[in-house]
Design goal:
This is GNAT family N-acetyltransferase. Residues 1-108 form the N-acetyltransferase domain. GO terms for molecular function: acyltransferase activity, transferring groups other than amino-acyl groups. Pfam families: Acetyltransf_1. The protein has 108 residues and is of the alpha+beta class. It has one domain (7-91): Gcn5-related N-acetyltransferase (GNAT) (Aminopeptidase). 22% of the residues lie in helices and 31% in strands. The chain is built from two helices and five strands, in the order ββββαβα. Strands 1, 2, 3, 4 and 5 form a five-stranded mixed sheet that branches. It is globular and about 45 Å long.
């Protein structure tokens, strides 16, 4: 993954301690105007560092990655019960405009 320019993994630290991380994946639409977009996964901030600006730093860094790659939008999915996370994303300008689906893949 570290050699793949389509993946961006920002990390925010407090001195030598990791406070949070996320993963952004550069994707391409295959229909319409074929716009570039970002898919965000695994936004995690240590509970000790929540509500202190570390999550905002992660997301702003991802937005800059999107701007550098001429992306038109960012998609992220958050579990339905994570209402605090939803308020956080809304405070950064994200809106709920679609419904997501997930299916677990069974192995063996």
């Amino acid at each position: 993954m570290s050699n793949n320019s389509h993946y961006y993994v920002p990390v925010v630290c407090d001195n030598d301690r990791v406070a949070g991380t996320a993963m952004a994946i550069l994707c391409y639409d295959l229909v319409g105007e074929c716009n570039n977009f970002i898919l965000v996964e695994n936004v995690v901030v240590d509970p000790e560092y929540q509500r202190k600006g570390f999550g905002k730093l992660l997301m702003k860094s991802i937005e800059k990655f999107g701007q550098r790659n001429e992306c038109k939008y960012i998609i992220l999915v958050s579990e339905m019960e994570r209402e605090g996370s939803h308020r956080f994303y809304e405070s950064l300008g994200y809106t709920t405009d679609q419904q997501g689906f997930k299916k677990r893949i069974m192995h063996g």
